[in-house]
Amino acid sequence: MTTALALNCTLKPSPDSSSTGVLLQQVLDALALHGVTGEEVRVVDFDVRPGVLADMGDGDAWPGIRRRVLAADILVFGTPTWMGHMSSVAQRVLERLDAELSETDDEGRPILAGKVAATCVVGNEDGAHKITADLYQALADVGFSIASQAGTYWNGEAMHTVDYKDLAATPDEVASATATLARNTAHLAALLAEHPYPAP
């Protein structure tokens, strides 16, 4: 069975409501239609230390999250937009994933090769396209594969205060992008499970 882990990089700790969490759940629901089971982790609820090692010691909570990343076939990376950029929590997660560049499997492939990543971005300001591009590059750099159109996002009206979680209904364009993300990401994950990348 294909599995997914959704990392919610909101700045809001639980139990505060999270627009990022709303869109991530919609992605997980869409993936479920393709036989993918998943769960969400709100990173800010854990003491993830700064650094670029797999374990920064002294109570660092990243190793536990890392185990869940490695166990999943699909990583759904979600972040809000702050001042036109991804959240500081999202940046920290990328920095922690940098450690995987030096990790390989038994056949010498990058340890994250064969896993698939997708992105979701929310915010009531511009920035979603730039954040998606930054996430694509970073996630591909550490070994994830990214399917066609594997990003979904919502930008609220500029200089207004409506959040995604406050909408009465999901905009058709967002629902369509989310459905495409799920369909293509599940498809690529199944292909890579059947046909892994060649060993060096």
Q: Key features?
A:
single chain; 6 strands; NAD(P)H-dependent oxidoreductase; globular; Flavoprotein-like_sf; 6-stranded mixed β-sheet; FMN_Rdtase-like_dom; 200 residues; alpha/beta
Give the low-pLDDT segments. Answer: none
Tally of domains: 1
Number of extended strands: 6
CATH H-level superfamily title: Flavodoxin domain
The proportion of residues in beta strands is 15-25%
N-to-C terminal Cα separation, in Å? 27 Å
Q: State the share of residues found in helices, binned by percent.
A: 25-40%
Radius of gyration: 16 Å
Mean pLDDT: 96
Helices, by number, come to 5
CATH architectural type: 3-Layer(aba) Sandwich
Query: What is the top-level CATH class?
Result: Alpha Beta
Oligomerization category of the chains in this entry: single chain
Question: How would you characterize this protein structure?
Answer:
Residues 5-144 form the NADPH-dependent FMN reductase-like domain. It holds the Pfam family FMN_red. InterPro entries: Flavoprotein-like_sf, FMN_Rdtase-like_dom. It comes from Microbacterium jejuense. With 200 residues, the chain is α/β, with parallel strands linked by helices. It has a single domain, classed as Flavodoxin domain (Rossmann fold, 3-Layer(aba) Sandwich), CATH 3.40.50. It contains five helices and six strands, in the order E-H-E-H-E-E-H-E-H-E-H. Strands 1, 2, 3, 4, 5 and 6 form a six-stranded mixed sheet that branches. Strand 3 and strand 4 (85-86) form a beta hairpin. Helix 1 (19-32) packs across helix 5. It is globular, with a radius of gyration of 16 Å. It starts with a strand and ends in a 6-residue tail after the last helix.
